[in-house]
Amino acid sequence: MTLAADSHEMTSAPLICIYEISKILTSSRSLDASLHDVLNLLSSYLEMRRGTVVLAAEGGDAPRVVAVSGLSMEAVGRGELRYPLEAARQVIDQALPMVVPDIAQDPMFEGSDLALGVLDEEEAMAFLAVPLKAAEKTLGCLSVARTRRPGGRYRFGSDLQFLSMVGNLISQALHLHQRIAEDRKALMAETARREKTLKARASRPVDAVPAPEEIIGQSPAMVEVMGQVAEVAGTATTVLIRGESGTGKELIARAIHNQSPRVGRPFIRVNCAALPETLLESELFGHEKGAFTGATQERKGRFEQAHGGTLFLDEIGEITPAFQAKLLRVLQEREFERVGGNKTLKVDVRLVCATNRNLEEAVAEGSFRADLYYRINVIPIFMPALRDRGGDIRLIARALLERFNVENGESLAFGEDALSTLERCYFPGNVRELENCVHRVATLAKGETIGAEDLACTSGACLSSMLWPRLPEGPADLLPQPTCPSPCQSAAHPPSHPPSHPTPHPTPHSGAPMAPPAMPRQPKQVGPTTPAADPAVESGAALDPDSREGLIAAMERAGWVQAKAARLLGLTPRQIGYALRKHNIEIKRL
């Protein structure tokens, strides 16, 4: 039926309701939960009862209810909602609003439960519905039931006007979620197709894939990575490089660029974690002159600079949700506007991203947009940790030392015992930590050959090993393994249960847990502020690591520093941490 809309000034309640609905629909919650909250708002602010969102079905099937106020979808599935689907079908098919002043007088509503809210016999329940349209397509309808005020003329026009505004907001949200679902389906299909192509090409031996000079490694894990790089380099598909910090993700991104048809074009790098959101937007998209304070001239962004080449976005998991929405549009359309400008620019850019975060957990927590995740996670490449690259540590250490020699005019070399010791280290910082270790030992080396005794870990000075015992306490089996073989445990053979007695000294090549070496002690001077040391306590003979009293005495002597107490007792930091938890000894903070 056709009704003339009555023009009248909107009250504050509808305006507040529209504002709250827009906030709900733009949140990161699921669509079903958002629609349910919108209908509850309609009931609270405007006393519109039994609000319902119905979506059109494909192939001529009956429309389906996706959200309803006052009932859960589980209750709808059990048949507890008696809703006039025929009325919804008419609204969807004709794409016109519908008003039924009294549903008790219309046979289409016979048997529905919309009249349950009528408490006064003189009142009548009216039904109002508006179509949900987006992109010239009717997606469904929004309907509400309202009691008519007794006496007077009821203004249906104002209610339809308000419902149409709410329906427009819901339509845009539905359209966006449908596009996300379609993009996800297309991306998954593309990923499956490329994985099938990679498997079909697996007959070619990956050993034949040449590795770039800057990437050193012959382990099976790295050979597999270089095989993936060779396969994806020739396409324009977005690549996501994943792995721990310091594994060389940027080198892999550059290798992809250098083996691609874009090799002669720019390779632009951006560390997304190094800039705040406002500066990151200007850095990526550029800005016009006068766009903000300090913008004294026009500046091209990194997307423009990388036109025709490759843009590498490092630490992409650290960008804020607000900037994720801005970046998503650029990745979808490959077009953007500079900050402060209104001219749309299009670019041809190959995108390579990298992160050390668990993006799946971030998506589940709501801190990373699912649509952006599916957009960048087309071809994932997983970088192995250095401890999982058997045999590569020796090669990388020698290459790093050779580079140090060239830069500093030295002729140092590693001894076999030093390389064996490095191979048993855990290296939580991966190649970056190994590089620091090589530079440190090369700088402080006393002779031309670097031996195991020159390494920091063999003298108890490995800084990484000091960090691990200070992690939050937990079960011993769940604690991360220490860094170096001495005074830490070997990563290759970590003990399942730390022993309660000192570990015997193994040979340097055994790979078994190594106890700290005997540390030379200087005699302490006896003065007015330094008491004379007890020789029995200094030697460790009077300190029993199996007893609570012995552990407390050692911790007191070491100033409650676990690493020092471990050296007194002949234990590793991990072992003494386990012993302290076993005897329930509270750590004092001095």
UniProtKB/TrEMBL annotation:
Pfam family, one: Sigma54_activat
GO biological process, one term: nitrogen fixation
Domain Sigma-54 factor interaction, first and last residues per copy: 215-443
Keywords: Activator, ATP-binding, DNA-binding, Nitrogen fixation, Nucleotide-binding, Transcription, Transcription regulation, Two-component regulatory system
Skewed-composition ranges (Pro residues): 495-507
Residues covered by region (Disordered): 478-543
UniProt-listed InterPro entries: AAA+_ATPase, AAA_lid_NorR, GAF, GAF-like_dom_sf, HTH_Fis, Nif-specific_regulatory_prot, P-loop_NTPase, Sigma_54_int
An example molecular function term from Gene Ontology annotations: ATP binding
CDD domains, per database record: AAA (cd00009)
Superkingdom to which the source organism belongs: Bacteria
PANTHER family: PTS-DEPENDENT DIHYDROXYACETONE KINASE OPERON REGULATORY PROTEIN-RELATED (PTHR32071:SF117), TRANSCRIPTIONAL REGULATORY PROTEIN (PTHR32071)
Role description: Required for activation of most nif operons, which are directly involved in nitrogen fixation.
Subunit: Interacts with sigma-54.
NCBIfam families the UniProt entry points to: nifA
UniProt-recorded name of the protein: Nif-specific regulatory protein
Protein's organism: Roseospirillum parvum
